[in-house]
Amino acid sequence: MGCFSKLTDSDAEIRVYVACLACYNEGRLHGVWIDATDDADDIDATRAALQENCGHTDNDWAIHDYEGFHGVRLSESESFANVSAIANALSEHGEAFGAWLANGNDADSVDAFTDAYRGCFSSLEAYAEQLVDDCGYLQGVPDVVARYFDFEAFARDMELGGDVWTHDGNDGVHVFDNH
Q1: pLDDT class for 11, splitting at 50, 70, 90?
Q2: Fewer CB atoms inside 10 A, N or C side of the chain?
Q3: Cα–Cα distance measured from residue 82 to residue 55, given in angstroms and rounded to the nearest whole number
């Protein structure tokens, strides 16, 4: 029913650039790109090695850049647990999960995302057509009558009525159930 697009941020890896703030405050840029899908402990171990390498053993770091997060915004001090959880959900579910987060949902709500996500379609009208077909709403109705069903109006009413919400993505319209 749906298409999960994988890494459509120009097929970039999902990664974060972690910098040593002590070095930054000294006027040196010292950091490392880290695979954000790594376990939070592994990300922190890479961060610790970075700081040890530059002679600073404090836990003073910041995320100065990131890629592959499909529009999800990270703070400079985002916990590595959050970074890893978001990155892994994006790795599995792609752009659609980014839209889910941007709509005010939490990164730890992957189950709620999979319950609400209806798929990626060429248009909301295409989703409405598939929903009507899957549910058999017009089954048994003669074609001469069924062809008058207005899928465009049905789709519009579902969105305006709050039954679904959409995100225009790189590969189509991502449709989410509001219930």
Answers
A1: low
A2: C
A3: 27
**pLDDT tens digits along 103-147:** 888 877 788 999 999 999 999 999 999 999 999 999 999 999 999
Span of 19-23, 55-59, 124-128, 158-162 with lowest mean pLDDT:
55-59
> What residues pair up with 35 in beta bridges, in sequence order?
15
Q: Which of helix, strand or coil describes residue 47?
A: helix
**9, 144, 26: which is closest to 71 by C-alpha?**
9
Among 29, 30, 47, smallest CA distance to 83 is for 47
Look at residue 76 in the predicted model and tell me its pLDDT.
96
Q: Does residue 18 sit in helix, strand or coil?
A: strand
Residue 151 to residue 123: CA distance in whole angstroms? 11
- Is the Cα dihedral 50, 51, 57, 60 positive or negative? negative
Pairing, β 172-177 against β 117-121: antiparallel
Distance of CA 139 to the CA centre of its chain: 36
Angle between helices 124-135 and 151-160 (to 10 degrees): 100
pLDDT in the model for residue 87: 95
Find out whether 128 and 154 touch, Cβ atoms under 8 Å. Answer: yes
**Residue length of the chain:** 179
